[in-house]
Amino acid sequence: MTDMEMMARIFVAFILSGLIGLEREIRRHEAGLRTHILVCVGSTLIMLTSLHVFDIYKTQAPMNVDPTRIAAGVITGIGFLGAGTIMRSPHGVRGLTTASSLWVVAALGLSIGCGFFKTSIFVTFLVLSVLLFLRKFERILFKKEAQDGVEEERD
Asked: Residue 94: enclosing H or E segment and its boundaries?
């Protein structure tokens, strides 16, 4: 893989995670635009590094090289970062959706790092659909009503 191909993948990660982060930023969540971009770009770089290391050493020590180990570490690490966005309050639990969106952008980064552009774009579309439209659909379907903005803050 050339440097230009790697930079293109990182740029795609920047754009796709920026779209998701922008939604979180507009809704004034703690983890917004910059956080989502950094998580996704970082996980893309980690995946690219993992693939490169695997490519270098696959013929020298095929039994000891496993590119999935680094990806698994990313997902575990993001779990800890996401846990920091979850807060319990008298009104319930807040930050679960933001934690989930951070986890998804980390997965997007790994996916983009592997070159799965079409799938990553599709997942971005699905995530944005969930973040932008599903709350309204839930309220209609389950006849939920916002309670002085409490539901807005829970995500």
From this structure: strand 92-94
Retrieve residue 31's tokens: 């983890």
Q: Pick 98 or 154 by higher pLDDT.
A: 98
Residues 26/39, Cβ–Cβ less than 8 Å: no
Q: Where are the domains of the chain?
A: 3-154
Q: Is the pLDDT of residue 151 over 50?
A: no
What are 101's two structure tokens?
A: 């969106």
In terms of residues, how long is the chain?
A: 155
Instruction: Please compute, for residue 146, the number of CA atoms within 13 A of its CA located in the half-sphere on the CB side.
Output: 11
CB-hemisphere CA count at 13 Å for 152? 8
Q: Give the pair of three-digit tokens for residue 77.
A: 């690490």
- Partnered with residue 92 across adjacent β-strands are 89
Half-sphere exposure of 37 (CA within 13 A, CB side): 12
Query: Are 67 and 48 in contact, with CB atoms under 8 Å apart?
Result: no
Question: Is residue 62 very low, low, confident or very high in pLDDT (cuts 50, 70, 90)?
Answer: low
Residue 96 Rama label (left phi>0; alpha psi -120 to 50; beta): alpha
H or E element, residue 87: strand 87-89
